[in-house]
Structures are given as structure tokens and as C-alpha cells.
Amino acid sequence: MFVTLSNTNPDPLYKQVKDQIVQAIVTGELKEDELLPSIRTMANELKISVITVKRAYADLESEGYIVTRPGLGSFVTSINKDNLRDEKLKEIRERLKEIADEARRYYIEIDDVIKMLKEIKEEF
Questions:
Q1: Beta bridge partners of 73
Q2: CA nearest 16: which of 49, 65, 53?
Q3: Looking at the DSSP assignment, which residues form a beta bridge with residue 108?
Q4: Which pTM was predicted?
Q5: Is CATH 1.10.10.10 correct for 13-76?
Q6: DSSP annotation string for 9-33
Q7: Comma-separated ranges of CATH 1.10.10.10 domains in the chain
Q8: How far, in Å, CA of 16 to CA of 25, rounded?
Q9: Most exposed among 19, 37, 44, 52, judged by the fewest C-beta atoms under 10 Å?
């Protein structure tokens, strides 16, 4: 199973499941039209509630990552990586705004934050 849950992760279990499936789709670990484990199988393997996995799958379906075919199961859909990139850029921008706002409240200059980002870039 490619999903591993952590009790130390502050995210709810359904979000951990969802995020790891999205990551597997984006990286190509899960391919287009690949069948996901059934909700019950995933719940049993992860030792969590069926309702938790059902919530993760429902979110994945509403966000366009999977499609559920009655009687057949849930399958990975084709994703547009450009759209996914654009969505992720918007999400990162919002998080950066939050960081900039927090920095401002503590009298930390944006240039200092930019310097930290450049240092992080060098680490990569």
C-alpha cells in the first residue's frame, strides 16, 4: 500500500489519504485508468474507518482526480498537469501571503524572507 498514516501529522486521516493519493497520481506512481483499492480494502489495510476512506475518495472525485464507476470501482482520471501546476501555484501564493503577513506582524522584513527562500533554493 502506498498510503501511510501518521498520528503526529496534524492533518485529519482522510486528508492524509487524499494527499498521498494525489501525490501518487502527480508523480506517476498511479497511472491514468488505474484501479484504486476499494474503500473497504483501503480501510482494512490502513486500519481506519470506511467513512474516512469514503470521504477521501469523495474529495478526490470532486476534485477530478478519480472517477467511480458503479460496480467496477474507483479509477484514476486523466489530469491536466498544467492546470494542476496553476492550482498549486495559487495555493503556494496564498501560503506565502500568510507567511508574509506573519513576518510583518513580527517586524521581519520581506527581504529577509526572500533571502531565506534563496537559501532554501540553494539547498535543492
A1: 69
A2: 53
A3: none
A4: 0.75
A5: yes
A6: SSS-HHHHHHHHHHHHHHHTSS-TT
A7: 13-76
A8: 14
A9: 44
